[in-house]
Amino acid sequence: MSWEEIKDMYDSGLIDFQAHSHKHMAIFTNTKIEGLTKKDRMEAPELYLYGELEDNFPVFAKRGEYSGKAKIVKKKFFNIFKNFYEENIENKITDKNEILKKCQEFIDKNNEYFSDENEAEYKKRIEEDYLENKKLIEKKLGNQVKFFCWPWGHRSKETIKILKELGVVGFISTKKGTNSMKPNWDMIRRIELRKYTPKKFKINLLVARNLILGKIYGWIS
Questions:
Q1: In the list 43, 50, 154, 171, which could disulfide-bond 64, CB 3.0-4.6 Å?
Q2: Half-sphere exposure of residue 159: CA atoms within 13 angstroms, side-chain side
Q3: Which domains can be identified in the chain, with CATH numbers?
Q4: Are 107 and 71 in contact (CB under 8 A)?
Q5: Which UniProt keywords apply (predicted)?
Q6: Shortest CA distance to 49 belongs to which of 26, 21, 71, 22?
């Protein structure tokens, strides 16, 4: 969508636009190898993390960038790892567990390429990304950004504290169910849009209009 289309929707008075992060990217959470990358299956978060899209980079666990402190991996490590894998393992070892074991040993021996984000770095990263998102929306639409929707639904109590200091009053989660007249502003529930159909939408509207049904739906789903 263009900003002109978004502005038309906002000006209708029916729709509002709030913060959802500026980059919508991910962070590594540890350096335990889970597999190897395939270039044709990599997406935008991988480009942000790895710096380039290639086969045979190590796959590490990742979460949304607002979910906590990051495990920082220097980007030059990935090509070092790729060269090691292609020279020493590819077409030489076939057992998957043995491959992962050898790769993990190499990763552990090269720990100078890894570091843990400290509190100040984490806070600065969150503040800069959120404020850029807020500034852009308010400049383009002329509204006031006071709510935040978690990227991928990955929540963090520590990030809530940081964003509240920046003026955020409500946090929209991916949790299903109905919000009461006095909602939990730290976890606003919403109608899920995953694998949606018109029939599912109608059912959700029927459930969401009833507080008791909505609460039950939230508990069981």
A1: 154
A2: 26
A3: 3-14+120-220 (3.20.20.370), 26-64+71-116 (no CATH)
A4: no
A5: Signal
A6: 26
User: For the segment 117-151, what is each residue's pLDDT rounded down to a tens digit?
Assistant: 999 999 999 999 999 999 999 999 999 999 999 99
Q: Please list, in sequence order, all residues whose beta carbon lies within 8 angstroms of the beta carbon of residue 199, skipping any fewer than 6 positions away.
A: none
At 49, the amino acid letter reads L
In the chain, % helix, strand, coil (3-state, to 5) comes to 50, 10, 40
Residues of 42-70 as b/e, b for ≥16 C-beta within 10 angstroms? beebbeebbeebeebbbebebbbbbbbbb
The alpha-carbon radius of gyration of the chain (Å, integer) is 21
* pTM for the full predicted model: 0.88
pLDDT digits (tens, 9 = 90+) for 50-97: 999 999 999 999 999 999 999 999 999 999 999 999 999 999 999 999
Contact 220, 177 (CB under 8 A): no
Q: Can you name the residues that pair with 19 across neighbouring β-strands?
A: 148
